[in-house]
């Protein structure tokens, strides 16, 4: 599994994922599942949707 999520994208996903989990637990709904998926893409630096469309926000290895 090659990383395709990097930098600012990871940070924004982590913030959004945590916020969605906290909100949904307080509201008592099921949106925590989406929050967990978004947070997971940040932690593992991999997004299946990005892979399917050939996108990447991660810097190629060897670039400064």
TrEMBL record:
Domain Inner membrane protein YgaP-like transmembrane: 1-60
Pfam families per UniProt: YgaP-like_TM
Keyword annotations from UniProtKB, A to Z: Membrane, Transmembrane, Transmembrane helix
Protein name (record): DUF2892 domain-containing protein
Domain of life, per lineage: Bacteria
Organism (species): Idiomarina seosinensis
Membrane-spanning segments: 7-25
């Amino acid at each position: 599994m090659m990383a395709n999520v990097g930098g600012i994208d990871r940070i924004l996903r982590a913030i959004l994922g945590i916020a969605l989990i906290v909100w949904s637990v307080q509201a008592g709904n099921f949106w925590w599942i989406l929050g967990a998926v978004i947070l997971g893409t940040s932690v593992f630096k991999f997004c299946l949707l990005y892979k399917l469309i050939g996108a990447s926000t991660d810097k190629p290895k060897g670039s400064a």
